[in-house]
């Protein structure tokens, strides 16, 4: 049974895989290779419960993603 949906946003496929393995098979994972793709997924997948966000990414970095979420008034919990 899937406990939650997690979006892992980062431009390293290896890091995406490592994070998935560390967190285990209880979750459904979505992957974004850059900030623009992360935003697209956040706007289309309404049941994402956790966003793991890299800071250095092509097209739009992690800070840019956070700025866009704030502008769109998207409610997110941050750690």
In percent, how much strand structure appears in the residues? 15-25%
Global structural class: alpha/beta
Order of helices and strands: EHEHEH
Number of helical runs? Answer: 3
**Major β-sheet profile:** 3 strands, parallel
Model regions low in confidence, pLDDT < 50 over at least 5 residues: none
Rg from C-alpha positions? 12 Å
Helix content estimate: 25-40%
Q: What does the overall shape look like?
A: globular
> Mean pLDDT, rounded to whole units?
92
Q: Main sheet: which strands, in order across? A: 2-1-3
Number of strands: 3
From the N-terminal CA to the C-terminal CA, the straight-line distance is 25 Å
Tags for this model:
single chain; 3-stranded parallel sheet; 3 helices; 3 strands
Q: What is shown here, in short?
A:
This protein is α/β, with parallel strands linked by helices and 79 residues long.
Describe this structure in words.
The chain has 79 residues and is an alpha/beta fold. The chain has helices at residues 13-23, 35-44, 62-71, and strands at 4-9, 27-32, 48-53. The chain has a three-stranded parallel beta sheet. Helix 2 runs parallel beside helix 3 (62-71). The longest helix is centred in the N-terminal third of the chain and has 11 residues, at 13-23. The chain starts with a strand and ends in an 8-residue tail after the last helix.
